[in-house]
UniProtKB/TrEMBL annotation, chains A, B:
Organism: Salimicrobium flavidum
Residues annotated as the enzyme's active site: H34 (proton donor), H116 (proton acceptor)
GO molecular function: hydrolase activity, acting on ester bonds; ligase activity
Residue span of motif HXTX 2: 116-119
Name the UniProt record assigns to this protein: Putative phosphoesterase SAMN05421687_105182
Lineage start: Bacteria, Bacillati, Bacillota, Bacilli, Bacillales
Similarity section: Belongs to the 2H phosphoesterase superfamily. YjcG family.
EC assignment: 3.1.-.-
Motif residue range(s): HXTX 1: 34-37
Domain of life: Bacteria
Keywords, comma-separated and alphabetical: Hydrolase, Ligase
Amino acid sequence: MKYGVAIFPSKKVQDEANSYRKRYDTHYALVPPHITLKYPFESNDEEIEKTIIPALDEIAKNTKPIDIAVKKVGSFKPVENVIYLKVEPNNDLQNLSDEMHKGALEGEREHAFVPHITIAQNLSDDEFSDVYESLRMSKFDLSDRIDRFQLLYQLDNDSWSVYETFRLKGE
Amino acid sequence: MKYGVAIFPSKKVQDEANSYRKRYDTHYALVPPHITLKYPFESNDEEIEKTIIPALDEIAKNTKPIDIAVKKVGSFKPVENVIYLKVEPNNDLQNLSDEMHKGALEGEREHAFVPHITIAQNLSDDEFSDVYESLRMSKFDLSDRIDRFQLLYQLDNDSWSVYETFRLKGE
């Protein structure tokens, strides 16, 4: 069974992201707009309860709420035809994701952590160029206070269901 | 902003429900398969944090995990062309939903509580008859232990995002 860890930002930010995802993101119906902290990994009920959740609880206990800002879009081109709302560089968010790849949660990371909210993916090259050109000069002015993250698992239809919520309780 | 309270059953039950929802449920992409405990209600950040969440915490603290079973489908015809996986009558589940309509959570209930997982809705009368006839004689043999419920809010696109998870912690 596949699990992942993500942040769902506020309704305001999710609604803004969905206004693009609806047209451009093939995963629009599979999961709400999110910032991925830990990419999908294989696990099972027992490991989740005994190891993963206690480790995530500990991280949440020691992490303060994190302020984030979005000012523009970014893209993973040429690796992937993905366009995202770029979360401005943020040490606290970097640390939070780093903690989720240490100790009991250790796992190799395929990429450096680039905090983002995907709004377009699986576009053809032509679509990508059109959409990216029209969005890259846009200014966004979104800010949000992140005070929780969630552990999700994937259903057989590839959609994601939330298993547990972790509140950031650091002082 | 609209909020609601629901149970997401195990992956096994969700996958089974989705195998029907995919074809017959217009809300398939808006929310994973669920048992509604408290129907959508209007609230706001402040009330949610100060009143609703503490009340739900208290309920979760005093409620033991609940075993449920599904053996057949049911329908809300003639009121609505809805077909659902019928959760066998269950006092603990009834009490849990009752608690969510008392005290700080008080609110009028439009219907008696019928625990169910919707698998088909908004069908035409002909579709409804076809699907219901083919499903009503089917035997299901699903069982599950419910150990959590979740508070959700609705986005502008009518999909639902999980805000908080409550573990049933009663002894």
